[in-house]
Amino acid sequence: MKYAFFPGCIAKNVYPSIEKSTRMVFEKLKIDLVDYPYSCCPAPGVLGSYDQDTWLTLGARNISLSEADELGIVVICNGCYGTVHRVYDILDKDEEKKAMVNANLGKVGMDYKGTYRPIHFVDVMDSMKEEILKNKKSDLGLRVAIHYGCHYLRPKSDEATYNVEKPKVVEGIVELLGCESVEFKDKLSCCGAGGGVWSGAEELGIDILEEKVQNILDVGDVDCIVNICPFCHMHIDSTQKKSQFKADTVPTLHLNQLLGMAFGMKDKHLGLHTHRVSTRDVVKAVKKAGKEKK
Amino acid sequence: MKDTEFLEDTKITKCVQCGKCSASCPAGRNSRLLTRKIIMEAKSGMDVVGREELWLCTTCFLCFERCPKGVNTVDAIIELRNRAVMEGKFPEVHVGAIEGIYDTGSGLPLSPDGIRDRSMLGLEKEPEDIARNEEDFKNFQKLIKELGLLEKVGVER
To answer: Which positions in chain A touch B27 (Cβ < 8 Å)?
Structure first.
């Protein structure tokens, strides 16, 4: 299996721990990742809100880079997915917009065909459960709160099969790793970062996140929040450490970091020590669960 | 009456004001954003393009998925934001991010902390992206200029 790897700005530049964990986990599962000269996806909340034609064109540019090599993109971020997957869907249905995009790309000698639908890494993992089990070293024994974020689930495209109000795909993966997934209020709601709110309306972003974290704290004894998006990850991890943040803090792990832990990779190699909210108790709990098993 | 043809694809005329959108809205619970009201006013031909609360939507699409009439509430808000930019009524706070994308190729650029963490984790100091590929980067900047976004937000390059 081989994909064009679209890490996205945050996993590359702000939380390289997520890029590193992804590369390690994919290598373990024998999936090749190929790098391309990608730009920002571009950010759906900011660029998309300012100029749809620019957003569509730059998104199509990114998708087109691996078309000649007959490779589709895999993303590890909901924001990137909210661009490349949606751009693909829009251009697939709208010939006029596709012509506009190609007229622009033509000016720099490029061309968008739309032959490979970009895929979210969660769907890759969902299709590799057997390989995941084979590579699992021990059950993690964690109680986790799954944060889906928004754009993996929504807007739901025509070909998707999950239940948009009760998805089970990430639950299926964390349970495979010996984690218990807890239910909590407004589980499917936003972290508060998207749509330009993180950069444009910081206080609102904090309020929305506080509500989310409080709903998770109310469940009790949750070891960590598992996310599938570096933008959510950044907001949950960094914003909880801001002085205005009123709730207690909960550590968060990108799903690829959780997979890495289950594969027996060292927490330092997965960059867990670079998080703002300490992950020490999570690492301790995993070690304890591993020992108890022996 | 304001021209609302640009909202046609979002089906706002189908809205029956049930309020499911605002009941689902995580931003609305914590701010003055009232999606139901914006859709109602836009549908009735009022000029809502300059409304500051348009920029409080996190584009989570819960409202869209729950709308019983299939109104694309989020795309309507995005279209209204695009229109606001055309009319020069946009929040200045995002202009820096747009400049950053043009100047570095990244929405959030590589920081000294990022370089430190990358090295520590054994990754290449700088990621293998557009910023390291001169020809691609030049073409990328040319595309942005040709599309006129910089002019719209008053950025000179």
So the answer is: 190, 192, 195, 197, 204, 208
pLDDT at A159: 87
Cα nearest neighbour of A10 on chain B: B108
Structural contact between residues A263 and A28, judged by C-beta atoms closer than 8 angstroms: yes
Express each pLDDT in A204-253 by its tens digit: 999 999 999 999 999 999 999 999 999 999 999 999 999 899 989 999 99
Burial of A100 (0-12, 13-18, 19+ CB in 10 A): middle
Q: Tell me what pLDDT residue B18 has.
A: 98
3-state secondary structure (DSSP) of residue B12: helix
Q: A16–B121: do the CB atoms touch at under 8 Å?
A: yes
Identity of the residue in B79, B123, B140 whose CB atom sits nearest the CB atom of A39: B140
DSSP 8-class letter at A219: T
Nearest to A187 by CA among A221, A225, A134: A225
Is the Cβ–Cβ distance between A191 and A208 less than 8 Å? yes
What pLDDT score was predicted for residue B4? 82
Nearest Cα of chain A lies from the Cα of B108 at a distance, in angstroms, of: 6
Measure the CA–CA gap between A15 and B14, rounded to whole angstroms: 43
The DSSP string of A43-93 is -TTTHHHH-HHHHHHHHHHHHHTTTTTT--EEES-HHHHHHHHHHHHHHHH
Amino acid A294: pLDDT: 59
Task: Using CB atoms, pick whichever of A20, A53, A194 lies closest to residue B123.
Answer: A20
User: Is the separation of the CB atoms in A116 and A73 below 8 Å?
Assistant: yes
A43 and B85 within 8 Å at the Cβ level: the answer is: no
pLDDT digits (tens, 9 = 90+) for A71-120: 999 999 999 999 999 999 999 999 999 999 999 999 999 999 999 999 99
Pairing type for strands A252-254 and A224-227 reads parallel
Distance separating alpha carbons of residues B66 and B80, to the nearest angstrom: 21
Residue A216 pairs in a beta bridge with: none
ipTM: 0.97
% pLDDT > 90, chain A? 96
Cis status of the peptide bond prior to A42, with omega within 30 of 0: yes
- The residue-averaged pLDDT of B10-32 equals 97
Residues 135-154 of A with CB under 8 A from B: 150-151, 154
Could you count the other beta carbons within 10 Å of the beta carbon of residue A162?
16
A37 interfacial to chain B (CB closer than 8 Å): yes
Mutation target for A interface from B51, B71, B79, B101: give the one with most A CBs within 10 A. Answer: B101
How much is the pLDDT for A292?
85
